[in-house]
Task: structure prediction
Amino acid sequence: MFFAPVMSRNTFVSPRAADLALQRFLQDSLGAASPVQRQVQVSRDEKFTTLTLDVPGLAREQLKLSIEGALVKLESVEGAPRQVRYTWELDHEVDAANSKAKLEHGVLTLALAKLEPQSKAVTLSIE
Result:
């Protein structure tokens, strides 16, 4: 933890360049996402969430993708040349029937369709 004595009586003191540089360094090294999360590109629209990530050296048969509600898991099978394991929890449930996964030149693209909420309202007859 860093402590700095207050030497100024001004109510607002603009940060010095060294303070800003230290703050950027700490945010980049401690506060930022892990290196695994930086490799994944995410784009969203009304119907799909698209995840794009690099998985060089792996074939379709060496990857296992599972979807359960809003949880998406990707892992390599046993005996694959490299081991990968990713898990994402999305802000919406995934419609697995309308989702697509495409592996091309070591880049995996997951187009995950949003599941439209279904009304569970029941109409009762009045006697």
Observations:
- The CA atoms of residues 42 and 51 lie 5 Å apart.
- The mean pLDDT is 82.
